[in-house]
Amino acid sequence: MPVKFSVLIPVYNVERYLKECVDSVLNQSYPAYEIILIDDGSTDGSGRICEEYTQRDGRIKVYHQENQGLLMARRSAVKKAKGDYYIFLDSDDYWDNDLLQTVNKTIEETGCDIVIFKFRKLFKNRSLEQAAVFEDGSVFDSQNKEKLFKKIIGSSALNNFVCKAVRRSIPDNTDYITYCTIKHCEDLIQSLPLLYGAEKIIYIDKAMYNYRVNSQSITNSRNIHMFDDFTAARGLVLEYARKMNICSAENLDLFYGYYRRRVLKYIEMITTADVPKGERYGVYEKIKQTPLYIDSLKFNGFSFTLNEKIISLLFEKDAIYFLTFYIKAANILRKARALIKKEREL
Question: Is the pTM of this model over 0.85?
Fold first, then answer.
């Protein structure tokens, strides 16, 4: 049977979860697939587990490389894919058994280039399904693709690369070496050229991807460079909006409003993080000198919460002492309220 899907799995130090991940593909009800494992310089037993799977099933191939990070490991996987479509799966996550069957049915019925589906987050004691972004079966093509891109412009709802099945022939001439150091927002960076180049995109309102919320995950680590990564990704969103000629006043308000909110959230995060004061102040200065942030101050077509207004005002007035005091006090108050609520529920 010809290979319809290439399942691309970057692997880095995930021996605890890797078997569940790969088994979730082997248990698929649809069989026409290959699995490509990219061992990105793992130092635990992950590489050995990958090799064991290649002995079990001829559809599985493993490639070992020096550590290059998630983005470049994914690009290596794409180059090795043979299927008509490819889908990424992070090595500490897993699929529902009918994912490929459902995606294939959608492709066969519509002839689409990309299928977008939903995920569910798995916490220690509960799970949370992603909210619907569009109606089930929504179709996006040259006539209405702006509607899809508006969601990208004003939210993160469609960022996730692992929830997209992509026709391998969609052109993508992006020089990803430019983004090789990025650890956050790389999903969005890789999604943009494909969503732009696809002639038909289908959204299905079904959660089939299980995302493990894990502080040690290769896609969940946090660092001081998050602002740089986020700004690079959002700058690329603006580039694609211009290429599509959809930079209306409404869309720019959406874009800059979302950008400002996320920057203010980042200011909150970096203020309470264990970061030396001098380094933190350097980040504050970098934000104020960033062209995208400066441009965002010109747009007022969006509303802030009271908390966002206070943080924005103190930040713009360089009242860093009061900014720090306010954010830390508000953080303590939120934790106290959450504790009181939990005790009442008990």
Answer: yes
